[in-house]
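seq as requested:
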Amino acid sequence: MTEDQNINLIFAIGALVLVGSALFSRRLGLGEIIRSILGWLAIFALFIVGFSYQTEIRAIWSRVSGELTGSNDQQIVGETLRIRQSADGHFWINGVVNGTPIRFLIDSGATTTAMTLSVAEAANVDISSSPFPVILSTANGSVEAKRATIQNLQVGPMIARDLPIVVAQEFGGSNVIGMNFLSKLQSWRVEGNEMILEPPSSSLAQ
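struct tokens:
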């Protein structure tokens, strides 16, 4: 825990002691005292957990609300697309794959754009029937993926056609825009808490 978390924990324990003292001073029955103490313990436990994991909770809320509302603070300014950093520290974007809205994580560390198998199938992505998988190294170990092609991917004002990608159900529910898309742009950069994507002078289409 950080110093601030330790201080808050001390205050929480102190408050719990005060509550316990008040309960005993009211001469309540033992059963009622135990129920009251357990109730307050649960309240303080939720407070401590919420405070300790506030960053993670905000990140989860940001992702869930983005999925539900389709909003992730992206804005088209002129010919550029500006994306505000999410609470989890990443940049998420709403793309359209073959007419189907899909939420992507922008990952400059990923060589190739990737989608989960179920999402790719729902968006009618052209998935290779080759029996030979692509072996990828991920944070969770090696993953067998299939080659595929997005016929039409729109991200803000930019459109890529026949974009090679990989698909696998083991990608953990995240669809990723990788460098094979970003490298086609005129430029992309991060300024403060915003990522700025600038389209090329010519079409992204291959």
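Confidence is low (pLDDT under 50) at residues 67-71.
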